[in-house]
Amino acid sequence: MVQKYLVNFDSRELPQQEAEYLIIGGGIAGLFTAWAAAKAGASVTLLTKRTVAESNTDRAQGGIAAALGQHDSPELHMQDTLVAGAGLCDEDAVRILVNEGPERVKELIDMGASFDRTGNDLCFTREGCHSQDRILHAQGDATGAEILRTLSQNVAALASVEILENQYVVDLLVTDNTCYGVLAVDQISGQFRIFRGRVVVLATGGSGRLFNYTTNPEVATADGIALAYRAGAEVMDMEFIQFHPTSLVLPGAPRFLISEAVRGEGALLRNARGERFMPQYHGMAELAPRDIVSRAILSEMAKTGAEAVFLDLTHLDPDKIKERFPTITLTCAKYGLDITKDFIPVAPAAHYMMGGVKTDLWGETSIQRLFACGETSCTAVHGANRLASNSLLDGLVWGGRIVQRAAMVLENRLHHKPEFYCDQLRPTPDIDFRELKKKLQQIMGEKVGPLRTAQRLAEALAFFDRWSYLQSHEVRETSQMEVRNMLEVGGLVAETAMMRTESRGGHFRLDYPETAERWRKHIILKR
Ligand code: SIN
């Protein structure tokens, strides 16, 4: 039984503060929600566990997809999203994404986001599974950083938004299926505090750090899903993890993302023997859906016994490459690679979680007054495999929708302020949480990675079972809390991956390689 809290506490003994909106997370989803809420006249407190600069948004290279091009349309964008999603997209959610997305992107442009242009015209590029050039980018391959700059500057200028950094949210405060706020700890002073919100929004981002190889920053430890699950919210589609096909593989280098846009501009994938292989795997070759490219790469690595395959840009115009991908050029140069002359060694790495806290089409979870948006949420808009560059768009669209719905929630005043406490947890056991985290990441990578079997998943589940006794102990350090969250969410991914006896999108079972019509459904879990 998953316990409700990570620490013993009594809210009556802690400092308390209150805002209309309490937003957890400072990536695109959290910041856009804060901006929209403040524009609607609400007071907002936004908590981030580190700084606003540290998020997956900041690392987003390829761009943001929106049907704004002359030959494009929301219908075409919808079709591509559904194809990538492998039969599990919620069609209403996709329709909302592709129709409202262009307006939200125009709002970003009005706020000052400077996307790349030729003359006055926006430039569009293509990535995997898109039938059109529809991906906007900024400073070549620094799209997320530009969006983050724009949003944080705009939000910082609003007097009704308070941004508090280094605030680690320990648990949600939920009673009678209604969320009243959070328990958080200031990572600098160590002070625990109660933040009350009439609307609480989870926008805590990704889960990539569950795996040993990931493109995600250190902060992406699945906190939002763990918080919501412990509090009794429904979570959905947890088995669907997207492994990005091309992360840099060099000794001493992090698994830095080499954007799919590089293939969109003509780069080819070659195996260790120098042979191009993607045309044998899919008609769209290097631009096939991500799950197909990732598995093709793993198959070529196994065939040749190599640790990586290679991205070949050597046939492309060197000046254009340097101008189009300045961040990738510079980062690779730091590790001694000239991407205009050398092949780039790459392999798949965990990149995006399609599942998350289940919400309706307005971002509302199964707990009243608790909303979720961005990667931590799951509307099933991405189905079993997210279409490239749809994630930034998702954060904007559902950030905006939450504010529309929450206006109704705010009309209903809360008549009481319940207090919360927990005194049942035993002292923190004397274990090495850093080692435990490493072991968890290794198990997830090896047993719950892109190629799964019942045997591998059973081994992973045995690992999670072994550590489940920790749920009756408290943890006081935030690094320990992260590991606890990772244990909870890693266990959910392994459990649902075991349940789904088929292969679909980001979930591939070597022992059930076919897609089964009877599995065209979602797995929903609740504590
Ligand atoms: C990329 O630039 O390849 C990543 C874009 C995305 O994940 O949508």
TrEMBL record:
Principal EC category: oxidoreductase
Spell out the catalytic residues.
Answer: R290 (proton acceptor)
Q: Which residues form the Fumarate reductase/succinate dehydrogenase flavoprotein-like C-terminal domain?
A: 438-525
InterPro entries referenced in this protein's UniProt entry, alphabetically: FAD-dep_OxRdtase_2_FAD-bd (IPR003953), FAD/NAD-bd_sf (IPR036188), Fum_R/Succ_DH_flav-like_C_sf (IPR037099), Fum_Rdtase/Succ_DH_flav-like_C (IPR015939), NadB (IPR005288), Succ_DH/fumarate_Rdtase_cat_sf (IPR027477)
Q: What is catalysed by this protein?
A: L-aspartate + O2 = iminosuccinate + H2O2
The entry's localization annotation reads: Cytoplasm
Q: Per the database record, which ranges form the FAD-dependent oxidoreductase 2 FAD-binding domain? A: 22-392
Is Transmembrane given among the entry's keywords? yes
> What GO cellular component term, any one, is given?
cytoplasm
Q: Which cofactor does it need?
A: FAD
Which GO molecular function entries does the Swiss-Prot or TrEMBL record give? L-aspartate oxidase activity; steroid dehydrogenase activity, acting on the CH-CH group of donors
Q: Is Oxidoreductase one of the keywords? A: yes
Q: What protein am I looking at?
A: L-aspartate oxidase
What organism does this protein naturally occur in? Desulforamulus hydrothermalis Lam5 = DSM 18033
